[in-house]
Amino acid sequence: LHKKIMDYSTNVTYLSLEGHVELEKYRYVYFVTALSVYMLITCCNAVVIYVIYTNERLHEPMYIFIAALLCNSLFVAAGLYPKLLSDLLSEKQIISHGACLFQAFWIYTNGGSEFALLAAMAYDRYVSICKPLQYATLMKMSTVKRILFFCWFVPSCEMGISIILTYRPLCKYKLNRIYCNAHSVAKLSCGDITVVNLYGLSALTIVVCPPVMFVIYSYIRIIEVCLKNSKDFRRKALQTCFPHLFVFTCFSITACFEVVNSRFEGNVPHLLTVILSIENSVIPPLINPIIYGLKLQEIWNRIKGMIWKKKMHNFAD
């Protein structure tokens, strides 16, 4: 059995995060890399969000959903990187049982929200392209607000139940990861975890399958409509749909790797486990603002305008 780490003054149980690879040797390399990635994620997402927020012409459903998706990326990064950066500079990589479960709740709730937001964006594109005359009626601002609420509320409820089921006495205290997830913590608990596993798989199915199926259905319908229209119509449709489709594909692949990795942990080389566990918090948050910032002309024009004004201001000074 692994030694129990406990603060007897406060009766708090701590878990040891032992997923780091050769930390003593590469501590500062890891820290600088993680800090650079975190700053890049924060800056790239914040710039696009700021551009959308400050330009009234971009206060349309498509851009509001993009801003919400990028906010979600910032939430995921905030749930991982500050603790990771602290651990990289600490002698002991530990976290309290409660904080570990909260981190798992935060990261995986926002992961579920990302699928829901991508499905909402697919719905927006579907209505815009397949039912343009009904767009103003179907995508009113009140509807957009309800969709956004649903995208965050439902995953938080599902993940909250999972965390409640996972919160039980522990018999082991060594987590072979660099951050927490519910399934890994559940495997440390005493007794049978069949109910936790069954609920986790059910919640995962509900969070992932309906959004994925809806996105696939939406794009089948969009393709059907595009094939019946002119080349110019197809070009404009693909110009707005490509960034979403690319982001959806990247996130689905990285999320799939994380799910498989958490379920089959211990059966793959540890270094690969670490890479698979963190890539979902690196690749999508970096790719999303770059893809939307560069590929959507309206956003890219605004960003270029900001850069040009800054240069002109510096030149005038």
Automatic annotation (TrEMBL):
One GO cellular component term: plasma membrane
Residue ranges annotated for the G-protein coupled receptors family 1 profile domain, each copy included: 44-292
Gene3D superfamilies linked: Rhodopsin 7-helix transmembrane proteins
Pfam families: 7tm_4
Highest taxon above the source species: Eukaryota
Any one GO MF annotation of this record: olfactory receptor activity
Compartments where located: Cell membrane
Keyword terms, alphabetized: Cell membrane, Disulfide bond, G-protein coupled receptor, Glycoprotein, Membrane, Olfaction, Receptor, Sensory transduction, Transducer, Transmembrane, Transmembrane helix
Topology within the bilayer: Multi-pass membrane protein
Membrane-crossing segments per the record: 28-53, 62-81, 101-126, 147-167, 198-220, 241-260, 272-294
Protein name: G-protein coupled receptors family 1 profile domain-containing protein
The organism of origin for this protein: Pygocentrus nattereri (Red-bellied piranha)
Lineage: Eukaryota, Metazoa, Chordata, Craniata, Vertebrata
